Amino acid sequence: MDSVPLPALHASHAGCWLRSAPGPTGAQTRGLGKGEAVMAAADTPLLLLNAPLVATRLGYPDLSGLDLLELFAFVHPARFCVPTPHGLADALGLPQPGDDADVSRLLQQAAGALLARCESDDWAEREGAWSSLQSLARLRWPWAPVIAPHLRQPERAERWLFARLPEWEEAPERPQPAQVTLDPAAVEQRLESLTGSGAEQRPGQRAYTREAARVFAPRPRADAPHMLLAQAGTGIGKTLGYLAPASLWAEQTGGTVWVSTYTKNLQRQLRTESARAWPERRADGSRPVVIRKGRENYLCLLNLEDALQGGFGGRAAVLAQLVARWAAYSRDGDMIGGDLPGWLGTLFRNRAIRSLTDQRGECIYAGCPHYRKCFIERAARASVQADLVIANHALVMVNAARGRDHAQRPTRIVFDEGHHVFDAADSTFAAALTGMETMELKRWLLGPERGLKGRRRGLAARLADVASYDEAGGRAVAAACDAAEALPASGWLQRLAEGQPSGPLEHLFAALRATTYARDESGGQDAGYGIETEAAQLDGPVVQLAGEAAAALAAIRQPLIRLGLRLEAIMAEAPDWLDGQGRARIEGARHSLTWRIDMLAAWEAMLDRLGGPTDPDFVDWLAVDRSDAREYDVGLHRRYLDPMRPFARTVLAGTHGVMLTSATLTDRGGEGDGWASAVARSGAPWLDLVPMQTEAESPFDYASRAEVLIITDVPKGDLAALAGAYARIIEASGGGVLGLFTAIRRLRAVHGRIADRLARAGLPLYAQHVDPIDTGTLVDIFRDDPKASLLGTDALRDGVDVPGESLRCVVLEQVPWPKPSILHRARRAAQGGSAHDDRIIRARLAQAFGRLIRSKDDRGHFIVLSPAFPSRLASAFPPGTPVLRLTLEETLHRLQRPVLLGSPPQDATAKDDAR
């Protein structure tokens, strides 16, 4: 493949290399310093790979050039590519670069390969490319003049994206599923067909499948679903274990099974695994398996149209054109974790990506000109007709709490990653009366503020025809909009800081802010973290301001209730002009009204509680949210002491069968029944249910394939020692290290001290909160390169699936203690004190350890850099796993051993017992 006649620049932590444009005498590659590299990039357009990352490496944020990833996104929209030299070479079928110095040559070859693809007759993504390129040329996209000679104009005018997208079709409501009891023999036969006749026989998986089938039996009475808690160790094959009875039940009953996950990674895995049980499409063209996510994950076509027609400027406008290219080839329009490359947003602005989704419930439903082509509506309708819906915990709970359509409420649910159901419920059923939330409500009611860009329309504009037809409804809209003027407006944070609040809500937030600063004792003020204090023993003036704010909120809620009643009346006696599309628009407005009325009622209840007796069911606190010492929100927060109470009432009670499954569902340590905490955190006690329980132990030989090493001589708080330990561990392991941190500042400090040193040894190091790359892409990069290591925080502790050589060592920088928040303190007091803390820590350790051994051939070390690691927490690890206390030097020697012996040396065991 010919190289393009353009110079190329590659920069890593190991150095910088510039390759000249190919000429009569060939091209030359030379190393250069960061300053010279920046000057070279400023002088002439250079080929780069992942410009934001290169800019970070050079310390020059204004770097620009010809980014190969942008070209890849244009040529191959909706196609996966790991955004590294290695990944790009794989995606294009090019030879791998030998070392850093050879990467710049690869960039020239890759550009040539992509441009040659544009000339190829069998280019699958040709349609729309020429029209898109004309728009990109007008936006002065640097690649446009480079691509233009290689892209011929089509003989016919290309259809615009919105003309090419297919329309969804209405389908009749699916009948109730038949009532059947699955035959155990048939369930095992289905499992065998899914795993394959030559597959290894797993007795644990067969037993697990038999138990899972029990949740699909007919329900004995109302509000009493069959409920199973199933712990399945890594390697059991739980996904196929529950898909076997699920697919059989769906086949025999015509019903829909929902599988809910906590992480996007597992959703992708489920999509792959489900192909064993269902075809891609049925005979009628419909999909038997559908992925569902929250609205904020999908491309909003109206937002995209606005962006394409001038709503975006500069680089964001280029992004909109590339997203339009992607939308034409996307499977389902999922922008967050779907087939849109995760790195595309970081090449431009992630904020621009979010602006193309429905982040704030701004959808106008049938009032949208693209309603019949909407990705969200398509997924919602497809899920009603599907046999399997792959969703997430938050969506399942939100749908149950405020779903628009009873037919879309799941009745048979498998909660995979079931240990996270408590956390998801905690977020879903929370309430927060904050400046940002009230501003969003104001924008929903009134539309964008004067002078601000945005296509969103206020309530009056959305319901103008209704208001003109129904006088009472029009008065209700006007009253709600008038009352909304009391809500905060742009610049509210600045006014609070200057002591000049405006309106009852801003005055309240100013008082809450002052109280929080006065009472906070966490030390977060000096460290730049967010701060909080109890919502108790408040002064009289604060309580008075709370009452005035509650009255202002009630003045908004009451006319919204009246409006909702008028909309119901219009639907009941529809006027002649109300067509099907208009009815759908009013239904959407009613749905939006309902949940905002509920939100206002929750806010009023929170304010009414201030100054009064404590409600034992809730935990309330004041908070000033900050990032790097910069305030971004202020307000009042409320959480259920036990969020499984509303979960049981809202989600469980309406189901017929529910299964919670995970490798870390139960508490492995401590005294007493390890199932007790799993039962309590399932919500079953709130419905007086006694759930079924089953446990399948992992088939992996942890005793001979894994070791837990507690390093005893890295002093806590010594950043230099911590960084040195990480560097030496990564060097001894030859990469393949996943480092988990409990604080972002320490992560950044360690990365800054060791990244260059490791890169010079050929061991690339990546990090969350440092590299301008989204978390999913960071994991893809880590998985793709066995010599790479990755540092991260909580998001990498669970749901990361990296089997094989790419992950050989997990390192925790300290024991993952719970954050000592007001909410944690309340739950700790209610649930056993220090025993509650230990359960949380053991769960986190078990989840982190679970990243290490993902297949029967995996082996590795789990290291904790904490000399004060309590021995009682060691039960978090699988039985038989050696747990050793060693010095750093002893640990490094063990890391270099090619085979794990599985039995600790006598002196190490004695050392552990002595503690």
Automatic annotation (TrEMBL):
PROSITE patterns in the cross-refs: HELICASE_ATP_BIND_2
Keywords annotated in UniProt: ATP-binding, Helicase, Hydrolase, Nucleotide-binding
Biological process according to GO: nucleobase-containing compound metabolic process
Domain of life the protein comes from: Bacteria
GO molecular function, one term: DNA helicase activity
SUPFAM superfamilies reported for this sequence: P-loop containing nucleoside triphosphate hydrolases
Domain Helicase ATP-binding per the UniProt entry, residue ranges: 191-473
Family designation: Belongs to the helicase family. DinG subfamily.
Name this polypeptide is given: ATP-dependent DNA helicase
Organism: Alteraurantiacibacter buctensis
